[in-house]
Amino acid sequence: KNEVEQSPQNLTAQEGEFITINCSYSVGISALHWLQQHPGGGIVSLFMLSSGKKKHGRLIATINIQEKHSSLHITASHPRDSAVYICAVTGSGSRLTFGEGTQLTVNP
Amino acid sequence: NAGVTQTPKFQVLKTGQSMTLQCAQDMNHNSMYWYRQDPGMGLRLIYYSASEGTTDKGEVPNGYNVSRLNKREFSLRLESAAPSQTSVYFCASSGAAVGGEQYFGPGTRLTVT
Question: Which of A32, A42, A45, A101 could disulfide-pair with A84, CB 3.0 to 4.6 Å?
Fold first, then answer.
């Protein structure tokens, strides 16, 4: 079992829909990261959080430390949100462990 | 600021050839990392450097060497390339602490035939 599990692996939505991507982890962590990888390959950090909730524009990230679970929500989705969303955790040794990613496609 | 830059963007090697991937950051970050990304797998850490003058192995270090030349630059060397090293390689950096928010380079797509 991977230390970081994401679901779903693939997600297709219609423009305007509310989207949720989930991340579960099995190790103790000091922080959880959400990253976005665009079709061109570049990777951008969206959030780093260790408790509660963070919001940036239409993106919201939450974490429940007790349940070892995080969610990334996208409100009013748009085709430009189409990308791979990656969850990663900072665990022991302060190194990041990554999930396999969720491929999101938003159709107009 | 350019952020994190990597060269080259693409490279094709024959088995047994050597090459060095270059990475530089202009954000005055202490920590730098080399990852590889393969289809169906998450990013995996090859080596990292918590500060100038130090390097440590990550999850998949075999077949690679690194040099933290100065605070800005962190290079990855393949001494004798193998087809299993065909991958996309990303360099990243982070401020204050290892494991902090990471800034990624554009990646190098390497094919070993």
Answer: A101
- C-alpha span between B27 and A45 (Å, rounded): 15
Percent of chain B with pLDDT over 70: 96
Question: Over chain A, what is the mean pLDDT?
Answer: 93
Residue A76 in tokens: 């009013």
DSSP class of residue B7? E
Task: Average the pLDDT over A3-13 and give the result.
Answer: 95
Which of B45, B98, B104 lies at the smallest CB-CB distance from A43?
B104
pLDDT over 90 for what percent of chain B?
Answer: 80
Contact check, Cβ <8 Å, A98/B42: yes
Confidence of residue B97 (pLDDT cuts 50, 70, 90): low
Using CA atoms, how far residue B113 sits from A31, B16, B85, in Å, is 39, 10, 10
Does A48 contact B107 at a Cβ distance shorter than 8 Å?
no
Which pLDDT does position B2 carry in this prediction?
79
Q: For the purposes of burial, counting CB atoms within 10 Å of the CB of B5, is it exposed (0-12), middle (13-18) or buried (19 or more)?
A: middle
* DSSP bridge pairs for B103: B93
What tokens were used for A72? Answer: 């990334």
Burial label for A67, CB within 10 Å (0-12, 13-18, 19+), is exposed
